[in-house]
Predict the structure.
Amino acid sequence: MKPKTFILALCTCLASAIPAVAGPYVGFGAGLSINHDSDIDPGSGDIEYDPGYGLNVAAGYDFNPVRLEAEFAYRNAEIDNASDADFTTMSYMINGYYDMKNINFPFKPYLGVGLGVINGELDNGIDDDDTEFGYQLTAGVSNKIAQNVNLDIYYRYQGTASDFDMGGSELSYDNSSFFVGFRFAF
């Protein structure tokens, strides 16, 4: 075998063994945001929320099958049985995902974890806010709907490591979100 033919065959074999790198992407999502009841300390009671909405935007890089991204998210929910009172969070996260590629199904599952900071703002006539270390866990499915576009459907649990300090009271925060989004690869 000639050296050029051997090198070409070796490069072809190596290239087929290395997974394709998908590259950079941007994405956004929106959906239902449900704040879990918040405990108030000191005090005896909790705050109940009506279901609200959430939005997020992200930019990342797909290393196939791992993705890393930076994300900004906004969530809002009205406080149940309180007129003109709501709770808003803005989160700034670094997320990592693992895409399960070798599944023979149109929707490919993925799992993710994120760390960052979450700013919570209680608006009940007197605005008060606090920022805490936050985390999130994600489980979702993705389907390629065009050459460089994926449809994502996902559940996300988000929480803070410490309670928010709101005017001398501590307010716990846990959230479940159900989002639909799109990812655009470059």
Remarks:
- Residues 159 and 173 are 6 Å apart (CA to CA).
